[in-house]
Structure formats: structure tokens, C-alpha cells
Write a structure and sequence with these properties.
By secondary structure, this protein is mainly alpha-helical. It has one domain. The protein contains five helices and no strands. Helix 1 packs antiparallel against helix 3 and helix 3 runs antiparallel to helix 4. The longest helix has 31 residues. It is elongated. 32% of the residues are buried.
């Protein structure tokens, strides 16, 4: 069987397999999260509403000016989160497909990176920094999503590092 010169098969070793598995794992996870948020819309909408309203924090008057109490803005934020999660899931599913096809590992790496960075932005910058600190989510006993956000950041970060360990290693040898 000959391989088209336009789509040469690249070496698919342990690093590439690890990148494919981690990308697929994160894709499955975030697809299920997005699916759950769409099919059980109200559960996490309540979470977002309480975090943004800061109604279960210590209610320190020096912080409460940050609260967003408008239901319209709260719901808009929640829909934006769902859209972001859905797009990240689709990007990671496409990246998984490219890893498994083994024809264009550069594009697989690029799409994996894009999807994983989307999740790092959402869960790291969005949930940990903005939700956790700006809206003082860490103060809430009931509506605190920091542990879940940290898990996603760690898994996505590990996957991103693994994806980038698959870079082209066929460059010139270095003299030492």
C-alpha cells in the first residue's frame, strides 16, 4: 500500500498515542459537561446566578459592589459558558479525529492546543480567577466550583504539555 505524498504517515509513537488519548479524554469530558448544561439547563444556571450575585459569600460590603444581580446578565454569562464549552468540545473532537487518522499530526497538535487553551481560559481565568477571586466564590460553602475547575485546569494542562511533547524531533542533531 502506498501513501500519498500529500498525506504522509508520521511516526505515531507513545507520545503521540498519549496525546491522542488525553485529547480524547478531555474532549469526552467537556462534551459531557456541555451536554449536561444544555439538557439540565437550570442546575448550573443556579450555580452561575449564585456565584455572580455573591449571595452566599461573607457579604463583605467592600466586595459586594462586584455582584451581578441582573438575571439577564447572569443568564447571558451562563449561555456564553455553554457556547464556549461546546466549541472547545468540538475542536477537541476534531483534534482527536486527526490524531487517530495519523495523517497530519501538526494540525492535530494545533487543534488540540486551541481546544485545551480554550479550557484553560474558561476554567483557569474564568472560574478560578474571576469566579473564585473577583466574585469570592471561595467564600461559599454551597456554590464553590474551585475544586472542579482545578481538576479541569490540571487535566487540560497535562494534556497540553503532552501534546507539545510530540513536536518534530527530526531536526538537526546538536553537537555537545
Amino acid at each position: 500500500m502506498s501513501v500519498s505524498p500529500d498525506h504522509p504517515r508520521r511516526v505515531f509513537g507513545v507520545r503521540e498515542a498519549a496525546a491522542a488519548v488525553l485529547t480524547a479524554t478531555v474532549a469526552l469530558y467537556i462534551a459531557l459537561v456541555a451536554f449536561g448544561n444544555i439538557t439540565d439547563f437550570d442546575t448550573n444556571r443556579q450555580f452561575v446566578r449564585h456565584v455572580l450575585a455573591m449571595d452566599t459569600t461573607f457579604r463583605d460590603e467592600d466586595l459586594m459592589w462586584r455582584a451581578i444581580t441582573s438575571r439577564a446578565w447572569q443568564d447571558a454569562a451562563y449561555v456564553a459558558i455553554i457556547v464556549w464549552e461546546t466549541v472547545a468540545a468540538l475542536v477537541l473532537i476534531a483534534a482527536t479525529w486527526l490524531w487517530l487518522r495519523r495523517r497530519d499530526l501538526r494540525r492535530a497538535r494545533l487543534l488540540s492546543s486551541a481546544g485545551l487553551l480554550m479550557l484553560l481560559l474558561l476554567f483557569g481565568a474564568g472560574f478560578i480567577a474571576v469566579g473564585g477571586e473577583w466574585f469570592a466564590m471561595w467564600q461559599s460553602d454551597k456554590w464553590n466550583g474551585l475544586d472542579a475547575a482545578i481538576r479541569v485546569v490540571l487535566l487540560s494542562g497535562l494534556a497540553l504539555l503532552t501534546v507539545h511533547s510530540t513536536g518534530d524531533r527530526s531536526g538537526p542533531a546538536r553537537s555537545g
